[in-house]
Target: RnfABCDGE type electron transport complex subunit G
Amino acid sequence: MAKKVNAIKLVLPEFDNNPVEDVKKIKTALAKDSIEVYPAFKNDQFVGAAVISYSDKGFSGLVKIMVGFKADGAIKSIAVLEQKETPGLGTKMKDESFLKQFRDKNPATFKLKVKKDGGEVDALTGATISSRAFSESTKMAYDIFVKNLEAINKTKH
Model:
């Protein structure tokens, strides 16, 4: 739980509610389990949400991330929660040099695919499969955020 709270603080704009208490579990055809969305408010204004997303298509299986979105849908930041990728290759998805290319990008206009697949993401050297899984997870998080925005940004109780 502490890991989750730290990730939430890392990926979201400043907030004054308790996103863990206000979590929304959203069922989607995109995932087997419900997706957890943590809405963030400051002075009762919606400032963004953190979405936990994953892909089973990593080089070594599961890649689980938390994507923080600003209220306008732009990515604030991304935290890698779980991955078993190849050390020195796919594990570099946690490095600032990879993550920074997603910050302040709005997936409405930024193609969340590796360049090799016609997108705008610079794949990790020697880890295209890991990069694809990361990008796919980010896209799924965005799709869930946008589709459920009305339910997510309701003022907290």
In short: The chain has a mean pLDDT of 95. The chain has four helices and five strands.
